[in-house]
Amino acid sequence: MNAPKKVVLAYSGGLDTSIILKWLQTEYGAEVITFTADLGQGEEVEPARRKAELLGIKPENIFIEDLREEFVRDYVFPMFRANTVYEGQYLLGTSIARPLIAKRQIEIARKVGADAVSHGATGKGNDQVRFELGYYALEPGIHVIAPWREWDFASREQLIHFAEQHQIPIAKDKRGESPFSIDANLLHSSSEGKVLEDPAAEAPEYVHQRTISPEEAPDVATYIVIDFEAGDPVAIDGEALSPASLLTKLNQLGHDNGIGRLDLVENRFVGMKSRGVYETPGGTILLAAHRGMESITLDGGAAHLKDEIMPRYAKLIYNGFWFSPEREMLQALIDKSQEHVTGRVRMKLYKGNATVVGRESPLALYDQDLVTFEEGSSSYSQRDAAGFIRLNALRLRTLATRDSRAKAGPEG
């Protein structure tokens, strides 16, 4: 394969991607285009522009884009329609951001005529897979450069030495090993490595980025009302909000009430186990509220089918197959199920807990007249249950009769 002439780099402005930027220039002699996505990570992204310019990138080759609304509308909300959790707990905050970044990188590559893309994911993690599966799904012939799998740097000291050789600014706290690494976006923050590598040791309080501890949360509960339309949240306490604004508000409510912490040892796609501390305050509230909304609007058979396919759907997202046909097929099924998931859910937020305390919908399947213990509708007769039970018990009775004969033996 010919050496690339123009590379679009997923660029955060931090030390690692700044070193990658300079390495691409020196190793490949390539023109570098930087792309910085604002996904609500909570840090100012404009400094990435100044850092890129300092490293010799032309202004027209610096792309900084606010993708918060697209991220929540087209990635987070579709995922939450499925009540998606990986391995029973993880709300996939890092996983769901990667396909959007990959998509925009490819779109920029097409716009500027680049023949390669590059990312800063390491060779031990899941993100390298997620980025690259996205690239290849959208542009099969693209040249992908993964520096962490290619270069010869074997330590943080060597990286810093390279940075100093090429006048790359180094923040003081980057001259030593970081206590842990952080990834963040509007849905969550994740912390991994260093002080968290021993799964037997409790995570220090300073690791947490997005929440106060439940012990420090208010002693009085906070009540909120979330409105849903066709499976997506649209308003909080009667105030209509855009997707990103709504998630931002839920994040603050979750933060203030110590909601959304998770300490997890998970199975990475590449084969190893890893320990991470995740914080998803708004997402934790949203998941509970959405399930509450579905509880009165979604048919039982449809709800159970969704629960059956959800682990498969979650695994596809975790492993980087967002753009696969099977994920899109499952999404169509999930979205069909949400047509009548419309109404209002009342939530109680208190010391780390997000609890559904009320739900109502003009499209509810819940019929109080049917379930009441008082004299109810004539559409259901309790006597009908006897035949229903006898029919469902038929095979169990047949099995029990057979087993009884077998125990008795031939003389029985």
Describe this structure as you would to a colleague:
This protein has 412 residues and is an alpha/beta fold. Among the domains are: 6-67 and 96-177, HUPs (Rossmann fold, 3-Layer(aba) Sandwich), CATH 3.40.50.620; 182-298 and 340-360, Argininosuccinate synthetase, chain A, domain 2 (Alpha-Beta Complex). It is built from 13 helices and 14 strands. The chain has helices at 15-28, 46-54, 68-81, 98-112, 127-138, 147-150, 156-165, 243-256, 281-297, 300-319, 325-337, 368-371, 384-408, and strands at residues 6-10, 31-38, 62-66, 116-118, 143-145, 181-184, 189-192, 222-229, 232-236, 239-240, 261-267, 273-279, 343-350, 353-360. The protein is elongated, with a radius of gyration of 26 Å. The relative contact order is 0.12.
